[in-house]
Write the structure tokens for this entry.
Amino acid sequence: MPQTEMLFSPVAVEDGIGSAESLTDKRFREAKEREAVRDQRASEVTARSDWAVKNVRTLDIGHEGGALTCTLWLDGKRVAEVEDEGMGGGYNYHFTDKDVEAKFYAEGQKFHGKFGTDCYLASFVDFYESMKIQRKFSRKGYPITVMIQKDVAGWSLKEDEDPYFHDTYYIAVRERKDVDALVKTEKAEAYTVYGATGLVSEVKYNG
């Protein structure tokens, strides 16, 4: 039997956030295509980057309940302390070197455009958490972990904004050949595959 771990439970769409049905088919498909390109690029860059995060701690505080602290590393050297107070704002960065800070900000803008540095940092946090789950499953004899994403929605009706997924969870299997059947069974709208050495394949979109 595949092993399963929930990242977070499905949540209701908040007021002011459009559902998938509220977008035209064409605009929604184009938004998904933009998201696919961005996620594929970000996933590959994150997995092979000289940047990394460590010491990630999540705290159930703040009115959003999603506070976080971590350290940011470059080439094996700690270069910043990062915190998110869970109050709806962005991350607070405390770099030890201004040149390194400028480099990180520039790369964030390059790979995430207007979403910038915070999305770049979040991609490293997501990779860190995904690999932690992969290692947990691997110790049980399931070396291939698949992040399943479903229940897509849009932030708004603006054409330049991307969809996001309400429902994200992990399932692990013993062999790579089992992934396609798993994705079909789970009716995943998108999925990412992780192995012992990191990213096995970038984000894949169905439909």
Observations:
- The longest strand covers residues 144-154.
- The chain has four helices and nine strands.
